[in-house]
Automatic annotation (TrEMBL):
Chain ranges passing through the membrane: none
PROSITE patterns: INTEGRASE (PS50994)
Any one of the GO BP annotations: DNA integration
GO MF term list: nucleic acid binding
Database matches in Pfam families: rve_3
Record protein name field: Integrase catalytic domain-containing protein
Family matches, as Gene3D superfamilies: Ribonuclease H-like superfamily/Ribonuclease H (3.30.420.10)
GO cellular component, one term: nucleus
Length: 266
């Protein structure tokens, strides 16, 4: 009996956009366990470097004039003085991949987790905070420069009640509230999973799967959305994978991949 993939041929997969995937609720069980950082800008010739703690939702933001690794390290020191970071989640920008940042992480016993290129959804919590900062600055009609407005928005963010916490981030930094936050997080996970059931099951790849990889640049109309072919060689967790393409290995998120189903006989 010949079995074939009947829903979509390979050519269709290459030209059609990927359907939505189920997302994963990222958990943290103590302050500093997971901290994400990012850079916004340029905004009027400056940048804003941001960070957020996954457990307390405590956030930090600082205006910088240039994207240099030494300025990132100084900012990370400031955050680390407030909260002992265990895992630092970063994108794969030139500054984040620098020797200075890696040496800082080694000195402070911090593990860096680099998210998949072109897949900022993997760092969704910091992305949402970045939008909050930008929208707050845009709507702030009070007197002040970018630095002043950023501080005002940050102060409001850290002192306002967050529904996911049941308290403000500054209140969540009180060690006596830790158990309360864990219980609230559990409630949020239950709600999240209930919502995800309505979205349908997520397709998870396994080692050895042949896949096609989503094109992230040169998205000219008429060109295939998925082009290069590769093989899953490692499962990294959180639906991220190492994919061997020709003679190199790249890291991609599951939403950037489509399975190639071979015809076979039995």
């Amino acid at each position: 009996m010949v079995k074939t993939e009947i829903n979509k041929c390979l050519r269709c997969k290459m030209y059609n956009p990927q359907r939505g995937k189920k997302f994963i609720f990222v958990t943290a069980y103590e302050p500093g366990e997971k901290v994400a950082a990012d850079i916004i800008g340029p905004i009027n010739g400056s940048y804003i470097i941001t960070a957020i703690d996954y457990f307390t939702r405590k956030a930090w933001a600082k205006v910088i004039t240039t994207r240099e690794s030494n300025k990132l390290v100084k900012f990370f020191d400031e955050v680390y003085n407030d909260i002992k970071i265990k895992i630092l989640i970063l994108d794969q920008s030139k500054e984040n991949l620098s020797i200075e940042v890696k040496q800082w992480a080694t000195r402070n016993n911090v593990r860096i987790h680099y998210i998949s290129p072109f897949h900022h959804q993997s760092n969704g919590r910091i992305e949402r905070f970045n939008r909050t900062i930008q929208e707050g600055i845009y709507k702030d009609n009070s007197f002040g420069n970018l630095k002043t407005k950023t501080k005002r928005v940050l102060d409001v963010y850290n002192n306002v009640r967050h529904s996911a916490l049941g308290m403000s981030p500054d209140e969540a930094c009180n060690p006596k509230r830790a158990q309360e936050i864990k219980l609230k997080q559990f409630e949020e996970i239950v709600k999240f999973n209930q919502r995800q059931k309505k979205r349908g099951a997520e397709f998870i790849f396994k080692e050895g799967d042949r896949v096609i990889i989503r094109r992230e640049t040169d998205l000219t109309k008429g060109k295939p959305r998925f082009e290069s072919q590769g093989i899953i060689i490692n499962i990294l967790g959180n639906n991220s994978y190492n994919v061997k393409v020709h003679n190199k290995t790249i890291k991609r998120h599951g939403s950037q991949l489509k399975l190639i189903v071979e015809d076979y006989f039995e």
